[in-house]
Please model this.
Amino acid sequence: MVNQKDLKVFKDMLIKEKSRILKSITQLEENTQQAARGNVSEGAGVPTHIADFGTDAFEKDLDLNLTSSEIELLQMIEESLKKIETRKYGICESCNKPISKARLKAIPYTKYCIKCQRAQEKTERKRG
Ligand SMILES: [Zn+2]
Model:
């Protein structure tokens, strides 16, 4: 079982991870805004080729995908932090059994124990 000392460690890990993700999301947003504004102010006189436009669009797509997965991660971290407050942290959402400490150390925002995670991955593969 997860004790108070462990909880503090996991909380620190979650907060660190959260600030890292927030930083990268902010950076992505800034990059996207800069790309949207164009490089009119700096680097004036650089011609826009059609090939360049294609690359830009491709990169923007990548940014968007990254942002949505980062946001998903952020939500999982927020939920885990809430669970620490309500003392439900480290309990599998599926079978209500404690999640192993080793697993929490690897993925502090996980919702499921390794058994349930594997079972879920199997059903997802069947569906797909
Ligand atoms: Zn479980």
Notes: The chain is about 70% helix and 0% strand.
